[in-house]
Design goal:
single chain, 70 residues, mainly alpha, 5 helices, 0% strand
Length: 70
């Protein structure tokens, strides 16, 4: 009965993924462009979805580079 009310498995997002979701759409699209991927795949990564490891590392480094500029 528990699965009826809510999913029994939840995805745990890292701090970098949470920070990515807080950014505006324009900044997220710039980071996705730097990572050579689409905004759709970048948003999937931010919500804990499955993306290739190369894309995930590229998004993390792109997010860190933008944070350094602040």
């Amino acid at each position: 009965m528990r699965a009826f009310l809510q999913p029994s498995v939840r995805t745990l997002c890292s701090e970098t993924q949470i920070e990515f979701t807080k950014l505006s759409r324009a900044r997220r699209s710039k980071i996705a462009e730097l990572a050579n991927t689409t905004l759709f795949k970048a948003d999937q990564w931010a919500h804990g979805g499955g993306v290739p490891a190369a894309v995930a590392t590229a998004l993390e480094t792109g997010l860190k580079s933008i944070q350094k500029k602040k």
